[in-house]
Amino acid sequence: MAGRIVLFGATGYTGDLTARALVERGARPVLAARSEAKVRALADELGGLEWAVADVERPDSVRALVERGDVLVSTVGPFTRWGEPAVQAAIATGAHYLDCTGEGAFIREIFERHGAGAQAAGCGLLTAFGYDWVPGNLAGALALRDAGEAATRVEIGYFNPGSGSDAMSGGTRASSAAVMLSPGFAWRDGRLVDERVAHRTRSFELKPGSEARAVSLPSSEHLTLPRVHPTLRDVDVFLGWFGPLSEPMRVLSAGLAPILSLPGARDGLQDLFGRLVKGSTGGPDAAARAKSRSIVIAEALDATGSRLAQVRLEGGNAYDFTGAILAWGAQTAAAGGLQGTGALGPVDGFGLDALERGVAEAGIARTSVA
Ligand SMILES: NC(=O)c1ccc[n+]([C@@H]2O[C@H](COP(=O)([O-])OP(=O)(O)OC[C@H]3O[C@@H](n4cnc5c(N)ncnc54)[C@H](OP(=O)(O)O)[C@@H]3O)[C@@H](O)[C@H]2O)c1
Questions:
Q1: Which residue among 25, 78, 147, 334 is least crowded, i.e. fewest CB within 10 A of its CB?
Q2: Lowest mean pLDDT among 225-239, 276-290, 296-310, 320-334
Q3: What's the 308 CA to ligand 1 centre distance in angstroms?
Q4: CA 192, chain centre distance (Å)
Q5: How would residue 41 be classed by pLDDT, with cut points 50, 70 and 90?
Q6: What residues are in contact with ligand 1 under a 6 Å CB criterion?
């Protein structure tokens, strides 16, 4: 029998999109959130779903949401601030877990600190299972498969043409501030090394004759792609959200580095930005989302830097994709479609072919190979 899907954070911007995507797929999730009035209203609107109240400030209330065989989906972020109780709840009960974080520091914690506990508990942890960073995992794995063993490097770029100034949710703004102030990392010469956020920039060709610049970020691909392509020595992931501001961001990040290394500075600034940049303020409406698109490009290179393969994925809005891919992942996991336990990536968690189908169902698909 399929386990229950419990969606924690259902009343937030992305939680709401995920709840609707689950119901569209025919699922009957249990909706959970900190406000009884808001979660009850949403559960009623979506056809009389079960609901529960849980608050990260009371970890026992989060733990009470799930039991073995269930799938816990968390959209409660920023995750470096509020993510831990849901992970602990999944490991304590043996429930599978998915989240939509894009925050590198949290992703690293899942792999380095929680993976072994989840393995012992017999459950899978699928972190960063939203637009950040599922399509890049898929594009990277497809490019590496096309390129074969000679590929030792992969470079991935994420772009969102058509996104206006209203393109980000409050939760994304709050999490982006957390990312900029957190330590970063990259996969270099066959191992994970510390590397500051926005340490590098590079351009990708979005259409013939038109290049777009992007900044490097710590993501899940650094931790997951070397598992599925053992000859991989270097992984770089770039985000194009900031367009022409990418280079100034690199300079700003270099300038901030000595300040952030002062005792207490990183925590102090995190705290300050946590109070200044608030979540739970909504996000782009359906009309704004319909204007933006997603382009994800992965290039597999050999040790001399020659490009062996390129994969390009294209689709719709990043938030619509996030709700839809979380719904696909939760439903697939609840039906027993998760391969393995512990901290998993999208490819080793579901298999490359199933993941490609799931990503296409969620609105992003392969458009060309060079
Ligand atoms: N990977 C991706 O591509 C992607 C896409 C979308 C979002 N995200 C990430 O997902 C997170 C949420 O984004 P969002 O746009 O949905 O932001 P949001 O609207 O601010 O949602 C945050 C959620 O956290 C809940 N929350 C806050 N404090 C809580 C507490 N003490 N106990 C329980 N719940 C609490 C909020 O509850 P209330 O509803 O009661 O305020 C809300 O449901 C962010 O970290 C964002 O970066 C990632």
A1: 25
A2: 276-290
A3: 39
A4: 19
A5: very high
A6: 9, 11-15, 33-35, 38, 55-57, 75-79, 82, 100-102, 130-132, 169-172, 175, 279-280, 283, 318-319, 322
